[in-house]
Amino acid sequence: MRSISDIRRDYTQAGLDVDDLSPEPFALFERWLQNAIDANLADPTAMTVATVDNSGQPSQRIVLLKDFDETGFVFYTNTGSKKAQDLSQNNKISLHFPWHMLDRQIKITGTAQKLSSVSVAKYFMSRPKPSQIAAWASAQSRPIDSKQLLMQKFSEATAKFANGEVPLPSFWGGYRVVPHQIEFWQGGEHRLHDRFMYTKASEGNWHTERLMP
């Protein structure tokens, strides 16, 4: 096998300069997200969600961003999941968007706030029915003996809700990640990457600074 230490490439697609920045980070985030969508990247809304448990052990997983505005970034999950259990004890959280094909990354650091049951229900009812049923069939993050048993639970839930709407499970919810720092990373030639950090000040405005690569 080829030595992985020899795997490298140059990043020459674009640059990021002060003139490209917006006064707050959300306009730039929206522009970059639209670029990822227009480039037909697989799962452009996929993001790594990092949480920390009560022992201080970090944990990461991929989820899909479902909404965002100037108040934060929204995702949904089973409230019995590992990430939800972590957040119940420590609401500090980090998000990461890895748009490798565009030589771009965005890292978001903040706190997670639970969404209202009204907001959660509104989104849940917009999901395809098989996805709604899957939420009932899966006790996320819990051990299970086999895939066959999971499919059996899905079949049972499908039969149960065959003739009507699928109700919102009591164990299904969502979070809004309220950011206090957002970093934009654009790969650069000779590893001289462009990095800009937005940090929210106590008065509510955003301060920006260029970081060394």
Quaternary state reads single chain
Task: Extract low-pLDDT stretches.
Answer: none
Please identify which CATH superfamily we are dealing with.
Electron Transport, Fmn-binding Protein, Chain A
Helix-strand category: alpha+beta
Distance, first to last CA: 30 Å
Alpha carbon gyration radius: 20 Å
Q: Provide the β-strand percentage band.
A: 25-35%
Total number of strands: 9
**Helicity range:** 25-40%
- What is the count of distinct domains? 1
CATH class: Mainly Beta
Largest sheet: 9 strands, antiparallel
Task: Quickly give the CATH architecture.
Answer: Roll
Architecture overview:
- The chain contains 5 helices and 9 strands; from the N terminus they run αββββαββαααβββ.
- A hairpin with a 5-residue loop joins β1 and β2.
- 26% of the residues lie in helices and 33% in strands.
- α4 crosses α5.
- Strands 1, 2, 3, 4, 5, 6, 7, 8 and 9 form a 9-stranded antiparallel sheet that branches.
- It has 213 residues and is α+β, with helices and mostly antiparallel strands.
- It has one domain: Roll (Pnp Oxidase, Chain A).
